[in-house]
Amino acid sequence: MSGEPPGRRVDARRLWAGGLATAVVAALVAVAGVLVARGVFDTAVLAPQGDGVWGNANTPKYALSAAVAALVATALLHILVTTTPRPGRFFTWVMVLLTAIVAALPLTLDLAGPSAVATSIINIVIGTAILSTLIGVARTAVRRPHRKP
Length: 149
What we know:
This protein has helices at about 10-40, 60-85, 85-110, 115-140, and strands spanning about 10, 140-145.
């Protein structure tokens, strides 16, 4: 017995390939967010303003953290689709709540107002990207058998 709910089949290879692609997207969203905040809006995000548009060593760490978050979300999704009824609903709720937490976090730190708001917005976009892409991946990686008439 596979542990999956009856009638559901998970293509783990497809799920994790989509998870890796989502990790790349999340990392690129982080980098793009920093570039837009620093280069377009002249707002210091993750580094002092004097460090330029790319910021400093924190920018790659931020991108790597976004990628890791996407992989952790993929693991959570895999667990949910193999163990729970309505995994998409549970996954969506978990992701929305986690995104709310990481969006609120910069607003609680000792950051300048614009920096905190910019970081919060970037975190929301990263969370939304992870949620929306993985829900799409799950639609193609999780199959229900066709019922015979």
